Amino acid sequence: MSMKHLTAKLAQQIDEELMNQAGAFSIDQLMELAGLACAQALARVYDKKRYPNVLVCCGPGNQGALQKLVTGLSAKLTLLEGGDGLVAARHLGMFGYTPTIFMPKPGSKDIYQRLKSQCDNMKIKTIPPSNDTSALRDALSSTNVILDAIFGFSFKGPIRSPFDSALPLLSGSRLPIVSVDIPSGWDVEEGNVEGVGLQPDVLVSLTAPKLGVRSFNGRHFLGGRFIPKTLEEKFELNLPEYPGSDQILELKE
Amino acid sequence: MSMKHLTAKLAQQIDEELMNQAGAFSIDQLMELAGLACAQALARVYDKKRYPNVLVCCGPGNQGALQKLVTGLSAKLTLLEGGDGLVAARHLGMFGYTPTIFMPKPGSKDIYQRLKSQCDNMKIKTIPPSNDTSALRDALSSTNVILDAIFGFSFKGPIRSPFDSALPLLSGSRLPIVSVDIPSGWDVEEGNVEGVGLQPDVLVSLTAPKLGVRSFNGRHFLGGRFIPKTLEEKFELNLPEYPGSDQILELKE
Which residues form the YjeF N-terminal domain (chains A, B) (predicted)? Predict the structure, then answer.
């Protein structure tokens, strides 16, 4: 039996089960382990000596344009997106990288503020908000690798401002890209059908790959090692076995 | 400059700074990373094929006898103890070990309930509460290695029931023991002065070693890779560098 690729709905359902009364996980726990996995996957591929400067691109969190599109998802769930990036940025800082945060639509909820403060305390720089793309261009000029945590499994196009202008810049930089869960701009189930999505070199799928990345042929990692066996069986995920005590697993063809 | 060994007061102060408004960490985040480090250190030393059955011994949480002794510590801080063990048990389960939880004085706070539910969902067994030590004896007979997360840095003797009868049983089992932060029964600053403490083979010091373990000469790991450089410098901790993206670091003489 091969590993299941998730629809957006199923991905949502799994996150809901993890966080409901039975699953009992807090968003802090899940985000911490997911963000750690993203940072570790990036570190596995891009050595900090050759790739010290990481631009961590974080999505709009649970406010702004995206929020209107995710009716049906609990507010809790939408928090996961964007937050992963902030957690990853902090861990990358701990690993000795120099992350810079691009988060043009910061979330207003308490958890975002806290995750952001944790980065600030590590002296991780954030690109100041701006009406044009000059600050992002400047940051890209000294970036070695991009962590794309902009859109996650709840994304539905079209891409709204300011991400509509940011995505082409990221693509145009020709820098290596590590995407979290779903490359930004891709449809969660259909893939890069609009052709406007990023083309990552590395993908970190959280809990299980989504349907839209079936055709992805770069280096592909699994992260989010927190699915109890009972849940894995209920949803017939057929997850491969993580090695030892690692929090990431590289998927091979 | 060598690494600083912490007094109980300094260890408390560091945790407070991590969790106050400036540090901005939630207890969930810190406990998750600390518990993961404990599980990974155990897995590094004790292979799951030869040592599949882990007895995870958790302290009294923030209630019962201990609570009266920790005046001056915030309720938040005392939560850290015992909780680490539950998080470690869950990760050990994910790694493929068969953990059993011994937690004779379960905490009543919401976070304990949630951490416990997460273990229950993984079908991790808990030794039922009992007025005698027979259940613990039974569990020990099929245990391969003990994770000692009973007392942490806020411990002050004497050892109260039911831990006063549990500790000699754990020692008497002659099973390998991995202790978290401070071996149970040791004075946090003076070490095993009463001679009643456990004699672990492996120690996992969280954030930095405590004064009481200076004489410890087993395998010694550092975990809790979440201290920002600014905090490390403020308290002159002189922490060694963790390798790569690892969450544990083995200390060598």
Answer: 11-239
